[in-house]
Design a protein that fits this description.
By secondary structure, this protein is mostly helical. It has 20 helices and two strands.
């Protein structure tokens, strides 16, 4: 509950935000750190593994994940609320507080409500809907608070700093769940409950920092229905909305089932999945700085094009992780996929909001930004639910082409193509994704550079950083010189013959070159 003191603090900080100071943004970063750690412990592979441990089918996984996207429709009434009151900070704070408390209820579902999946789905939908009311007001609030000329770099910094504790907690969480599964296999879901309780607690801590973020004054038109319709009358913005919506359909048809695929088909442990997730996050951190600078220099659209196309290629690459069974290269392919997905999500997280803000009408920015979320929620929700159905449909289907050579005494069979189960699912999602990339190419952004130029810059930056890394580690990577090895062995034989063993049990390694 909000006390009168808390409400007064919200108003005081809102009124004080008249002159911009970069120091005012530190609480935005702190909030990002605690919010990200909560998302790490309550979302992604851990949440999907949680509902699988309670007996959810692929269709039910798709339905529950679809709820998280459909809940974004709550941003429609949130637009009216924000436009009518102008109190974005109060709305964001209150909605965040309620949704994070509801995560405690989700955590207690296996303990108190006997693992009832229907009850879990309903509470999850309510918590997600309230959280998206906060998101709507937050997006509009940050648009007015963070200057356009530093927005890309600042958001890159916020995401980068928030990922570091998230990575650590994700590995610890994976190890903890594997330990729990080995020792308490009959109550596996209780282990996830402990992680979710911790995540909710960290999310509640972030409310303190939201309370101290200043709020600039907001321009309001008080024409709610017209405000909601206006973004769709803007031809260029409408193209962006459709392209991003279709791309989200492809991504969210496939991505909820990556964890299911690794758990059920590849038989990975939770800690293995979380380590792959960390690899993706490390890649995300690495490319955030590069892509943030490139989006400020060359525009958001070319960076978005490079990033979004990379993710679609990654979806297609999942089909090669089994041929048709798990093989020697399955893990290396997954590592490459997760590195590239980290690059993709770094670029898309940065640029989708930025390009939407740039193409929006400043007088109606809340509706423009919310329209992206509303369309995404519809496309993504349908995609996840549709994906659950197709995953169950294709699970017993197979399409195979095999070359055969027969001789009287033997027969040789070479599999050329073998698609089964999730392979069809990922192939269909990637096809839809490629259509979205064509639509994105038709969007116009003032000052945009070519996609090829951005790709060239990304490759150059990676080469430059690898060269620097090689130069730093070169002295440590020197191998002992080969001629010195026989001399060392001969010296050891001499010591043995003379009986002059050193007082320590370790050999005299200073016979080798010193590593500085």
């Amino acid at each position: 509950m909000l006390t009168s003191k808390t409400v007064s603090q919200l108003r005081v900080h809102s009124e004080a935000a008249t002159d911009f100071d970069v120091k005012q943004l530190k609480n935005v970063i702190y909030d990002g750190i605690f919010s990200r750690t909560m998302a790490t412990l309550t979302g992604g592979p851990l949440f999907i593994a949680f509902i699988l441990s309670m007996g959810a089918s692929n269709a039910l996984v798709g339905l529950i994940i679809g709820f998280s996207f459909i809940s974004q429709l709550s941003q429609i009434p949130a637009i009216f609320l924000v436009e009518k009151t102008g109190k974005r900070k109060l709305i964001s704070f209150s909605a965040s507080a309620i949704s994070r408390i509801l995560w405690i209820v989700i955590a207690l579902t296996p303990l108190i409500f006997s693992g009832n999946l229907i009850f879990l789905a309903i509470i999850f939908l309510i918590a997600s809907s309230i959280a998206n009311i906060s998101t709507c007001s937050w997006n509009s609030w940050m648009r007015d608070l963070i200057p356009m000329n530093i927005r890309g770099r600042f958001l890159a910094k916020r995401l980068k700093l928030s990922f570091i504790p998230g990575m650590i907690l994700s590995i610890i969480g994976g190890i903890f769940i594997d330990y729990w599964r080995r020792n308490y296999s009959g109550n596996e879901s209780y282990g996830y409950s402990i992680l979710f309780m911790l995540g909710a607690f960290l999310g509640i801590i972030s409310l303190h920092f939201i309370l101290h973020i200043p709020e600039p004054s907001m321009k309001r038109e008080n024409k709610y229905f017209k405000a909601l319709i206006q973004p769709f009358k803007d031809k260029n913005f409408r193209k962006l909305v459709i392209a991003i919506g279709l791309w989200s359909f492809a991504v969210n048809m496939a991505s909820p089932f990556f964890a299911v695929y690794m758990l059920k088909i590849l038989n990975f442990s939770i800690s293995q999945i979380m380590i792959l997730t960390v690899i993706s996050q490390l890649s995300n951190i690495y490319f955030l700085g590069i892509l943030g600078k490139l989006s400020d220099r060359f525009g958001n659209k070319p960076v978005l094009t490079v990033s979004s196309s990379t993710f679609i290629i990654c979806i297609l690459a999942w089909t090669f992780t089994t041929l048709p069974e798990k093989h020697l290269l399955s893990l290396p392919i997954l590592v490459v996929i997760h590195v590239l997905m980290g690059l993709s999500m770094a670029g898309t997280n940065l640029t989708i909001g930025n390009i939407a803000a740039k193409l929006s009408n400043p007088k109606n920015a809340t509706a423009y930004l919310a329209s992206i979320s509303v369309v995404n929620s519809i496309f993504s929700g349908i995609a996840a639910i549709f994906g659950g159905q197709t995953a169950d449909f294709f699970i017993k289907r197979e399409l195979a082409f095999t070359l055969q050579w027969k001789e009287p005494s033997k027969q040789l069979s070479i599999p050329v193509l073998d698609f089964q189960g999730f392979d069809f699912h990922f192939l269909l999602a990637s096809f839809i994704g490629f259509i979205s990339l064509h639509l994105l190419s038709r969007v116009k952004e003032v000052g945009e550079e070519t996609t090829e130029k951005v790709m060239h810059e990304v490759v150059n930056e990676v080469k430059k950083n690898l060269k620097s890394l090689t130069a730093i580690w070169k002295p440590y990577l020197r191998m002992p010189q080969i001629p010195q090895i026989p001399a060392y062995l001969m010296n050891m034989e001499k010591i043995k013959r003379e009986g002059n063993f050193p007082s320590q049990l370790t050999p005299p390694y200073n016979s080798f070159p010193q590593e500085n």
